[in-house]
Design brief:
Radius of gyration: 30 Å
CATH superfamily of the largest domain: Spore Coat Polysaccharide Biosynthesis Protein SpsA, Chain A
CATH class of the largest domain: Alpha Beta
Helix content: 10-25%
Shape: elongated
Strand content: 25-35%
Structural class: alpha/beta
Number of domains: 2
CATH topology of the largest domain: Spore Coat Polysaccharide Biosynthesis Protein SpsA, Chain A
Number of helices: 8
Number of strands: 37
Bound molecules: uridine-diphosphate-N-acetylglucosamine, magnesium ion
Oligomer: single chain
Length: 457
């Protein structure tokens, strides 16, 4: 039977170098926390067989990942990565694993392939860990090999002593380890915090394993594998840039047209189908979907929204939790707030705001309008300056407009109110009573014309 491997994600650290009260693993890249990237890379290999060590801001991490909470292990005091492993050890044991794959939670660029590659060493080694050779070794732990190339130890940057450890090779520790449970168990208690940081280092296990005659391998990743750990805002910026290009290139290769790609941002959970066209300075986040044939023009910000095929978003729109049906036109300068729904061929023009409101098939609100808590029937026309007055200071009320209705410009619809199908509202009306089907309503002061008094000079 193949050896079973359980993954252990170390996510308890504060991330002092981020200068933030938010736990480091909740810092975001392209709108998603870095821990989310680690879970997504590991899930295809480990499924539910994943434990996470949390500590600093544990409540916040739990709130962000409620589905994973059951598999959280609390490290009350964060005494180092080695200590995190000690705290979680029993829980890993309980999963019946032969091996534990430990990964730093601040490594969001990790890929499924890289993890798979390391996990595939199970059965052959006692300890294996991934190494990289970045342009700058920075604060990474240095990998020390003997003259024959065999691993000697990992020495943390702070503790590196050239006289003792020899010249630096540039090969460093990526923070992903494969540990054979039975081989490592007896070494765990031997970890000491006798180093410049005063912490228990997981990396010391490597030297200890070598000294105990165990089989230890440093698995070098290819040059194209970027496994940087994120410890500072600058590293977060670099990683976000790398992730952004990774996603953009995948989309382009798949058949999405992207103009000015250096200004397009697409989050990792966003689906963009081949044949969609994105113009620069567009940002799409969350669980958004952009179907084939959609055109998203410049300066638009989108989150958790869907765009059915053939719709066009003109410049400068803000779209949040909205559903845009096929062949709709949105913008320029439209704001779709949560619960905005546009049915096939509907149109929302400039300075129109929608919230919890539905525009039926072919309906139009082309200028300067607020539709909140409203249902608008198919083929209705909402004139410029129409406002649904949905809020009385305490409660929200619904406005219902039937199919084919025509709402004249500058109309205030005081909810709750219903305008029947094919009804017409005269411009400038304030509508407080229901309007039956096919009726015309005029709700405004009657115009009177008076003789103009002219001053005599
Ligand atoms: C660590 C490695 C270093 C490696 C680098 C790769 C050690 C001692 N050093 O350094 O060799 O090159 O990662 O990115 O491990 N954590 C806990 N509990 C703790 C402390 C940390 O869960 O008590 C978690 C952190 O949340 C983080 C991860 O462990 O996700 C790594 O900790 P971090 O402080 O970032 O270690 P590095 O200094 O980057
Ligand atoms: Mg780190």
């Amino acid at each position: 039977m193949a050896d079973t491997v359980t993954a252990l994600i170390l996510a308890a650290g504060k991330g002092t170098r981020m200068h933030s009260d938010r736990p480091k693993v909740l810092q975001t890249l392209l709108g998603e926390p870095m821990l989310d990237y680690v879970y997504r890379a590991l899930e295809p290999v480990f499924g539910e067989r994943m434990l996470t060590v949390v500590g600093f801001g544990a409540n916040q991490v739990e709130a962000a990942f409620p589905d994973y909470m059951e598999n959280f292990v609390l490290q009350k005091e964060q005494l180092g990565t080695g200590h995190a492993l000690q705290v979680a050890w029993e829980r890993v044991r309980q999963t019946g694993a032969d091996y534990c794959l430990v990964i730093n939670g601040d490594t969001p660029l990790v890929t499924t392939e890289a993890v798979e590659h390391l996990a595939s060493r199970a059965g052959n080694v006692d300890v294996a860990f991934m190494t990289i050779s970045p342009q700058s070794a920075g604060s990474f732990g240095r990998v020390v090999r003997d003259s024959t190339g065999r691993i000697n130890a990992i020495v943390e940057a702070k503790d590196y002593d050239h006289a003792k450890h020899g010249p630096v090779t540039g090969e460093v520790n990526a923070g992903v380890y494969l540990l054979r449970m039975d081989a490592i168990e007896s070494l765990l208690d031997g970890l000491r915090a006798e180093n410049k940081s005063g912490e228990y280092y997981i990396t010391d296990l490597v030297g200890m394993a070598v000294n105990n005659g165990l089989i230890v391998e440093g698995v070098a990743c290819g040059a194209d594998v970027n496994l940087m750990g994120i410890n500072s805002p600058r590293e977060l910026m670099d990683a976000e840039k790398t992730m952004r290009y990774r996603i953009i290139e995948q989309l382009i290769d798949k058949g999405v047209m992207i103009h000015n790609p250096e200004t397009v941002i697409v989050g990792p959970h966003v689906t963009v189908e081949p044949g969609a066209e994105l113009f620069g300075h567009v940002e799409i986040y969350g669980e958004s979907t952009v179907r084939t044939g959609v055109v998203l023009n410049s300066y638009t910000w989108i989150t958790d929204s869907s765009f059915a095929s053939g719709c066009v978003v003109r410049q400068f729109c803000h779209v949040e939790k909205a559903e845009v049906g096929p062949d709709c036109i949105v913008g320029p300068y439209a704001r779709l707030r949560p619960g905005a729904v546009l049915r096939t061929g509907a149109k929302v023009g400039n300075f129109v705001e929608m919230k919890k409101a539905e525009l039926g098939e072919g309906a139009k609100a082309s200028h300067l309008t607020y539709l909140g808590d409203a249902v608008v029937g198919a083929d209705s026309n909402i004139g410029a300056g129409t406002i649904t007055c949905n809020y009385d200071g305490k409660n929200k009320f619904t406005t219902t407009i039937g199919e084919g209705a025509f709402i004249g410009s500058n109309t205030a619809l005081v909810a709750p109110v219903t305008v029947g199908r094919d009804a017409l509202i005269a411009a400038g009306s304030t509508i407080t009573k229901n309007v039956p089907d096919a009726q015309t309503a005029i709700g405004r002061a009657k115009q009177i014309n008076l003789k103009r008094c002219m001053k005599k000079s």
